[in-house]
Amino acid sequence: MTSGYYAPAVSPEMALAPAGWQSLLVAFKTEATRGATGWCIEPHDLVLAKAAAGRSKDFRFLHAAMRARIVDPRILLERLPTLPADQEVVELIRARICALGSELGFDCKALEP
After folding, report:
1. What percent of the chain has pLDDT over 70?
2. pLDDT at 13 over 90
3. Are the C-beta atoms of residues 48 and 18 closer than 8 Å to each other?
4. Of 3, 17, 100, 103, which residue has the fewest beta carbons closer than 10 angstroms?
5. Where are the beta strands (DSSP E) in 1-113?
């Protein structure tokens, strides 16, 4: 590690992300990558994958991404049903998104059918 930053690689088999996440990968290439391209998971899919892990640090990540407006709660809720996780986990994530979303002025009930 020469740049003071470490980004671990994750194989596709390890990702517990919403369906179709592979088609939304974001290319990252700068002069610092010396011609190499890093493929990064799209922010909404990353936040949901981390939330599915269920660790407190992952929920802090979810909250920070929402507060910073890096992710849109509507998109998180649209993709959430495609997360390959137990329904109990999905509902916990939904509750967290809606709780923080309400603090930020987002109304989850407006999205209900």
Report:
1. 84
2. no
3. yes
4. 3
5. 26-28, 38-40
